[in-house]
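TODO from last week: model FAD-dependent oxidoreductase.
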Amino acid sequence: MSDQHNALFESIDLGPVTVPNRVFQPPHGNAYGLGDQQTAFRAEKARGGFGLIVQEYSQIHESTDVTPVDSGYIHDDETIPPQREMVDAVHDHGGKLFVELWHGGATAGNYGSRRPPLSASQLPTGNYYTPKEMEHDDIQKIVEAFGNGADRARRADYDGIELHAAHGYLISQFLSPFYNDRDDEYGGSLENRMRFFREIIKSVRENVSDDMAVGARYTIDERVEGGLTADGDGLEIVRRIGDDLDFWDIDIGVKQSIDDMIAPSRRHSKNYQIDFMKAATDELDVPVGGTGRITDPDDAVALLEEGYVDMVGMARQSISDPHWPRKVREERVDEIRECIGCNVCVSQSRQGIPLTCTQNPTVGREAIWPPEEYETVDEPKGILVVGGGPAGMEFARVAGERGHLVHLNEKAETLGGRVNFEGTLPDLGEWNRVRDWRATELERLDDVAVHTGSKAEMSYDDVESYGAEVVVVATGASWSEKGETSGTHRPVPGWDRDHVLTPEDALEVDPSGRDVVIFDEEGYNVSAGVAQSLAADNDVTFVTPSASAFDQAVHTFERGTIFTALFESGVEFISHHALEEIRDDDVVAANVHSGEQTTLEADYVVFTTMRKSNDDLYRDLTTNLDSLRQSTEIEEVHAIGDCVSPRRIADAVYSGHDLGRQV
């Protein structure tokens, strides 16, 4: 290891616990619950060199649950055995494991238990329920439950406790005037609002062993009007609690400002929380950690050396590459798989869907697909991959790691496929890391040859004569020119007029000063990016059959940022409408519920309604597969990625990885 990164690998004491380095995984959900999948997921990060892992938010009492999400649990003794196994697995790799004790308060809908959600006050949640304002008996019951959770953590052999005093959950709801309008000893003054937190700290301290650390994840700035701020009560709480805790894990944002709390790259660049962390570090004598999409080793070192933090936290980056610390220590920085900030991870887990990652297809499958480990083949095959998008690149990489002889042919001048377009859309530049990391890895592999440009375009005859034993078709998908939607499955009449464009077409023409209608059912980044690109110089009307545009961006926390940009650009939105007809100078749109028609001026029409697989080559090859096998060396033909089913980039990468492990 070079001296450049030494600071990351110095040990640090969190109270009585010595953590072997300064790189930690803050708590984050994954919807895996407890058991083998969770154990393998956390242990992999310890194997990859993370000195401290904090197990996700863990329910301390039956009065809170986040059904349908399968979260952490520590509310009864049955949860202890699987957690002890997880602790042992992390310890086997030299890491420390803490658990985050959590009560959701008003933000937990309790859809499983059907109990009324509890909170400091009865204030609206924006959901189908309003919480119960906690009575004194409720408060004491929950304080005791935090202590009981700490006792179970001790019996499960955890190294420490992190209290969830952040993100608008129950402790946060008592601390913040945004949530707390009580007029008793638990509300009003700052000291009164801190009382619940202090009582919980005392209860936890009484139930842990002397060799366990006790700290908190804490929102220093809630990023909402009337909430805690880093230049006000948010920082004053840090001052007053101080070294009653062994460490602080600083964060920003609550549910109402979640696009700051778990910010996508569309909204914030990496390292966006560093000034908030430094505000706490400057006030405290105990260690402070924090996050904010820290991905680069040089940035991480600078944060330590310049006194922003004492520990560098990586949640999304630890998902994207659980071996980040090991690669830095071994001077393999160029092999780090950096997070792209797409938030596919959290968009899954917060809906109760097991966590996935665009960059790292092994997430959640560590027990069967250990990251960075590949089973070498006994008999290498000669493999031709047709198409160098996310699926084709990932397949070629994995097959090459396993010892196959791979030729990757891409007819474009550069690898990347759909990423080359989507990565040029406004604020999505970090998505190019999907392409760039894989291109670098392919260059590193001796058994992989990459060919690009027109000479690499593959016809049926080219494939037939290539001499490959295995052919993998990864030719992607194209945007439909016809405007079919899920509600009609039919082309829009007039689709074949010259002024009807696909998304790629729309960014290649110059429609300056014209009326543009975007007809969308994608509801995600392409439709948003095209609208943002065109809105600068045109009058743009965005038509969608859904109730609201960009539905797919709700759980990635991008929709608020998208709407702000587009409203500021003057984009007009017409929801609940579909296009009925495209004419020379206008379009006819109809309300999908009432049928009432509206005419909109349109010099150009852009369809972002569906993509169709480019599967002609695959169909031709498989139609003649028996003949191919008899007359050539070809043994197998496969299709992967969007060529099979147009979905997210994450799904294309997974598809390529899956076949790469099997072939």
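Done. DSSP finds 22 helices and 28 strands in the chain.
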